[in-house]
Amino acid sequence: GEDVEQSLFLSVREGDSSVINCTYTDSSSTYLYWYKQEPGAGLQLLTYIFSNMDMKQDQRLTVLLNKKDKHLSLRIADTQTGDSAIYFCAEKGADNTGKLIFGQGTTLQVKP
Amino acid sequence: NAGVMQNPRHLVRRRGQEARLRCSPMKGHSHVYWYRQLPEEGLKFMVYLQKENIIDESGMPKERFSAEFPKEGPSILRIQQVVRGDSAAYFCASSLERGTYEQYFGPGTRLTVT
Fold first, then answer.
1. Beta pairing class for A9-13 and A106-111
2. How far is residue B26 from each of residues A34, B14, B32, measured CA to CA in Å?
3. Is B30 part of the contact surface with chain A (CB cutoff 8 Å)?
């Protein structure tokens, strides 16, 4: 079945890089996503990567995809206190409905 | 262009009452997805609707839950005879086309059942 796993917590110092990891099980996933959720708020789409890509960079964000190991990571360079949030990895399901399968979220704590 | 709108943002219901959650998709979007987030958990897919049609309801509990997306007006997620276990954040997302890679999420409705 489809399953997405993430580590639950990451703490970094301001200015350091953060790396949030995710593993997924569905090898037929076409898109993989990173969403950010701030306390009491909805989900903000940060970035996504198509499954035929290995890497995608967008300003401070770098997404790496290892399709062989079904491993996805999000690197945030120069992490700021405003980056403190929960980060969700998600995959687009194998069917064509577009529904997303989410991981349980990684809480990123940025210390000043 | 307004984003996905949900109301109410917070809803308190006593056990046994009905809860109605509304979602207005982004302008031009005719595909709506509902997700539920239980405390300390990720989002779980519930139902996918297109205007006047339920496309996939594989994530909906078998009883008490229903959803609709009429030709006019918002999508409604209805929970009858709520129980404490229904307390969660309910998120709606919309997309322009079926299976498109971009889904835009609303701010969510936080349901508390007392």
1. parallel
2. 20, 31, 10
3. no
pLDDT in tens, A31-89: 899 999 998 888 899 999 988 889 999 999 999 999 999 999 999 999 999 999 999 99
d(CA B6, CA B29): 15
- Give B40 or B21, the one with higher predicted confidence: B21
Local structure of B84: helix, strand or coil: helix
In the sheet that A18-24 helps form, which strands lie side by side, from edge to edge?
A4-6, A18-24, A71-76, A61-66, A55-58
Q: How far is CA A23 from CA A69, A89, B21, B27, B31, in A?
A: 8, 9, 32, 34, 28
| Contact with chain B for residue A49, Cβ under 8 A | no
Q: Give the 3-state secondary structure of residue A81.
A: helix
Residue in this structure with the two tokens 């300003």, named with its chain if needed:
A59
**Closest to B47 in 3D by CA, of B37, B62, B32, B29:** B32
At A11 the pLDDT is 97
Interface contact A28, partner B, CB < 8 A: no
- Using the predicted structure, report yes or no on whether residue B105 has a pLDDT greater than 70: yes
Is some CB atom of chain A closer than 8 A to the CB atom of B83?
no
**pLDDT attached to residue B107:** 92
CB spacing of B99 vs A88 below 8 angstroms:
no
Contact A43 B102 (CB under 8 A): no
- Give the residue from A4, A8, A97, A107 with the most B CB atoms within 10 Å of its CB, the best one to mutate: A97
